Amino acid sequence: MDNSDGPSVEGPAFAEKVREAEEATDLLQRHNWDFKASPKVYALQATCDVAAKEIILIHDGEIQTRIGRLVMLGAGTVFNLMGPESARSIFKDTGSHAFDEVNRQLGSRGLHDVPAFERFARAQEVTFYNHTAFYQLRDLVFWSILHGGGLFPSGFAKFAQEIASGKIIHNALFTPAIRSKDTARPVSMAATCLSVSFPTSVVEWMEKPIYGGMVTETIHIVNLLTPRPTTVSHPYLPLTGEGKVSLNHHPYYLRRFVGVSPKDGLRGPGVAPEGPQTKLE
């Protein structure tokens, strides 16, 4: 999003911004979400990308809990992170205990074991705040216009598919203490851990991050923990290890997947983000 976590005005001026965002959203919806009908919805520039993910998935056959810590690259003041989730998800901020324990038992340094991660290793810590859930497309569009972030058509199309399939779009803000506005020299940010739990009878993997204009690939470490042995494979990461670990006094079978994958929605070399590149008044 742009360099603000919301409109810089309040009172009647804020009410006017709400009215303008509502009008732009209505226009877009009447034209079946064709961005050309409402140029205000276009994001002006790419400012942030997920560079690396370390994930623990705990699946007991009925409930899946995903604990994640992300490293992002960004140029700006305030950023937001959106992603599809189950409509029955429970979100909790959590510490790094699970990662510390699993990596200790495996003799691993986590993401630091991956050579490609070293360029992001000195990331500053950031905390997610102002968590929001979008249940329909107009909520997502309205919020994006009001807060000045906008959307890229490729990302919007992906979120539209997810909402149509019964998912919600979870959104959270984060702000670095040390900032850069130069897209050629973005800052590296490590987010505090977030836990998401929801009912499911099968293992559900995370989608690939959508390209945000900063890095074209994502470094992944995914640890699948199950109470019984499994042969489940990851859709785009290789299996790099198996074993048994204990977490919170519970024994688990572990399958570990590590790799680097291209992002979804990649644009070709030199191809600018979709849509207007100058700010519209």
How is the secondary structure organized here?
Layout: H1 12-30, E1 48-59, E2 63-74, E3 79-86, E4 90-93, H2 97-106, E5 124-126, E6 129-134, H3 137-146, H4 153-164, E7 167-174, E8 187-191, E9 194-199, E10 217-226, E11 239-247, E12 250-262
Parallel strand pairs: 1-10, 5-8
Antiparallel strand pairs: 1-2, 2-8, 2-9, 3-7, 4-9, 6-7, 10-12, 11-12
Helix pairs in contact: 1-3
Strand content: 25-35%
What is Rg? 20 Å
Largest sheet: 9 strands, mixed
Assign the CATH topology. Immunoglobulin-like
Instruction: Enumerate the spans where pLDDT stays under 50 for 5 or more consecutive residues.
Output: none
Q: What structural class results from the helix and strand content?
A: alpha+beta
Shape: globular
Number of helices: 4
Task: Output the helix-strand order.
Answer: HEEEEHEEHHEEEEEE
What's the N-to-C terminus distance? 17 Å
* CATH architect. name: Sandwich
Q: Count up the domains.
A: 1
Helicity, in percent?
Answer: 10-25%
CATH class: Mainly Beta
Number of strands: 12
- Quote the average pLDDT: 91
